[in-house]
Each structure stands twice: as C-alpha cells, then as structure tokens.
Amino acid sequence: MFDRYEGGEQAVLVHIDFSDEQNKEDIDELQLLVSSAGVNNVGIVTASRKAPHAKFFVGTGKAQEIADTVAALCADLVIFNHALSPSQERNLEKLCLCRVLDRTSLILDIFAQRARTHEGKLQVELAQLRHISTRLIRGWTHLERQKGGIGLRGPGETQLETDRRLLRGRLKTILKRLDKVQKQREQGRRSRKRAEIPTVSLVGYTNAGKSTLFNTITDAGVYAADQLFATLDPTLRKIELQEVGQAILADTVGFIRHLPHDLVAAFKATLQETQEATLLLHVVDYADEQYAENMGQVNDVLKEIEADEVPQLIICNKIDRLDGVVPKIDRDDEGRPTRVWVSAQNGTGIDLLKQALTECLRQEMVNYTLAVPAGDGKIRGMLYELNCINEQEYSDTGDWIVSITMMASDWHRMDKKVDNRLSHYII
C-alpha cells in the first residue's frame, strides 16, 4: 500500500529540548527505545526550540544538518523523539532521502515485534492502521485515476481512495474480533466476581520489573528482559494468600510518557484488567533517578483509562541496586500498608509483599445495608449484576432494603456511575 523508503538498521536520532514541559522528552529513554527495537544508533542531533516548526518540526537549518548527518554517516533511518505530523514526516523524508520515524511509530514497531498472542497482534495492527490512516498520501502517479480501456477499467477512484477503503474494511474486521475478545474477558471477570476472587493487577512504567516480580510470586516463567515493552500480552495466574484464599495476579503492558492514544484505544480489552482490578500493585524502579516523574506518568495513563479510583499499593522495586535500603513495609497513620520495598530479581522482601497484599485485600471488602427507592431500578440492576446481595426485603414505604458485600473498588466505581446516590442510600 505504501511507496516508502525502506527502514534500515543504522539510525540518526533527533532530540529537541523544548522549554514547554508538555513537549519535553527524555533522550536516554529514546536510546532505550531504539535499542529495544533492534536499531543501531550511529549519531544524535540535538537542538533547543520554544515550539515546533510547521514544515520540518525543527528549523530549516537544523533540518539540513540532519540531512547532512544522514549522508555523512550513511544512515538509512531518522528517528525523532517526538510526535510528527504527516506533512512534517513527508517533508523530512524528501530532504533526508531516507525514512523518517517519530516516537509513536517507533513504539508501534516495538509493539509489533513483541506481540505473541492472536489478541496482541490484533491490538497492535489496530493501532498501526489508525496511525497509518493519516499518512496515506504520496505525490506521484500512484494517485492517478485508474486507467481505462479494455481489461483496465477500474472503479473510477484514485488509488489513495482504494487504499482508504481497504483500510476501513480491515479496521472493521479487527474491531469485530477485538469486541469478541473483550466479551470473553468480561465473561471471565464476571465468573471471578461471582466466586468473590479478588484480582490484583501489576501496573508501572515500562522496564520497572513487573514481569520479574510476577515470575517471582507465581513461578509463571513469563518472558522478562531488561528492555522496554518486554510484556505486551497479559498473563493471569492464581495465587494463595493467608486469610484471603485465592486471588488472581495479572501482569500487564508497561506504560510510558506520552503513550500514543491509538495504543491506549487498541489495548482497551487488555487494560480493562486494570480497570476492573480490586487492587493495583504500582511497581516502581527506585534505582531510576526519574522514578517520581515516571510514577506521575503512570498515574496519568491510569486516569485516562478510568482506573485512577482503584486502590494502589506501591512496590519500591530494585532495592538491590540501592545502598543501605532494606526490605520493609511503609504504613499510613491508620496502619494500612502504602509501600513495600523489595527486589524482584533476587526475591528479597517477597514475604513482606504477600503480607501487605493480604492486609490490603482483607480491608478491600465493604458491607452496607441500603434503602433503595422503588423508582431507582438502575442501582438494583447493577447490584444484581455484581452478585453482591446477602439479604433483601421491602419496607412499608416500598423501599428496597438490601444487605450487600462487595469489593471497595466496585463500590466506589458504582457510586461514581450513579452520581454518588449509593452513599445517600446507606442506613
């Protein structure tokens, strides 16, 4: 479908230092992304700007410097540490005479390499097609009307229109398949809720050590490596916790600053494990100097996928790389665990983590008696769907008196959906 310069192994990296915090990126993270994609970094071009240039993203002089660097180093790829518009990408390709990738395309490429399951491949393809759909523009005879004549008559549309039509058809097919996957996952979640099995989801910045921790706790043997986005496909395993019984531990895809919106939308079925979790284990690489900023980025993505209401337990990982730090549990004023200091690599502090998990999940159940007015059928339907009703009867005034036991996260999520009416019905 595309007449593009072929991407190669030798890349020139471009990093612009913006004064605006919203556009700021980390050059070390770009180098990690590039190595994770299997590309050789042969040179870096840096610059400072207040705002992106309309034509080349960088100034015309800097764009020429990039083109000269590409020619001097015999590079066959330019990778920007920022999001480029389709026209900027096209203008740079004409100037540099090689393929130009932005940060979003690079992340999508890594995801395409890592996807293993049918669902993962569908999600990545969906994100790629959405990204490519804005870049279906070329400037040569490919755009001509299809030729006439015997045996050559076409539908009378440009090749670009044909490409767009084919792409829309493929998007519809993928969305249908992903909808089916989502329904299957929803069915699994409903059965776990009926069995009152809590779900604990691992979240965190990419390469924070989530999969290593998952393997240490469950002996699952999932792929774990010191690279960005080693995990794409979610893995679920049962674990046994004292005083709680069985729980489900879910390993999910890592987050990154400015995670492309197409990826968030495509991975909706996967990220729903995080949305519907009883508790989030927020794994943080405390050996990283930017750990506080990374935590903020993860919380931003959680807010975007509407999982910011789910309770969190912060796991301070990689303490084996820190001097004088020992495994421990930090608690709030009420004695509840807030942080656990561990090393997933050598197993230090895992017992403390299980102890904190037990305490958190034990506290995550709520018991209430509600007086629901007869006209509020929406709440009644939602309570039946959650299968959380212990006893029920009707008052003389017609109110539905119901005793419920449910996860605190489900309570807060449901209360938010009905504009806090649940809280007013407690008796």
List keywords for this structure.
427 residues, alpha/beta, Rossmann fold, Alpha-Beta Plaits, 7-stranded mixed beta sheet, 4-stranded parallel beta sheet, 14 helices, disordered N terminus, GTPase_HflX
What does the secondary structure layout of this molecule look like, with pairings?
Blueprint: E1 10-18, H1 27-36, E2 40-49, H2 60-73, E3 77-80, H3 86-96, E4 99-101, H4 103-114, H5 118-132, H6 159-194, E5 199-204, H7 210-218, E6 235-241, E7 245-251, H8 261-266, H9 268-275, E8 279-285, H10 291-304, E9 312-317, E10 328-331, E11 337-341, H11 350-363, E12 365-372, H12 377-386, E13 389-394, E14 400-407, H13 408-417, H14 421-424
Parallel strand pairs: 1-2, 1-3, 3-4, 5-7, 5-8, 8-9, 9-11
Antiparallel strand pairs: 6-7, 10-11, 12-14, 13-14
Helix pairs in contact: 1-4, 4-5, 5-6, 6-9
Low-confidence stretches: 1-7, 138-145
Rounded average pLDDT: 81
Give the class-level CATH name of the largest domain.
Alpha Beta
Query: What is the annotated CATH architecture of the largest domain?
Result: 3-Layer(aba) Sandwich
Strand order of the biggest β-sheet: 6-7-5-8-9-11-10
* Number of helical stretches of at least 4 residues: 14
The secondary-structure class comes to alpha/beta
Cα-to-Cα separation, first versus last residue? 63 Å
Helix content: 40-55%
Main beta sheet: 7 strands, mixed
State the total count of DSSP E strands: 14
* Backbone shape: globular
CATH topology of the largest domain: Rossmann fold
In total, how many domains does the architecture comprise?
Answer: 3
Radius of gyration: 26 Å
CATH superfamily of the largest domain: P-loop containing nucleotide triphosphate hydrolases
Family: Belongs to the TRAFAC class OBG-HflX-like GTPase superfamily. HflX GTPase family.
Organism: Glaciecola punicea ACAM 611
Binding site for Mg(2+): 211, 231
Keywords: Cytoplasm, GTP-binding, Magnesium, Metal-binding, Nucleotide-binding
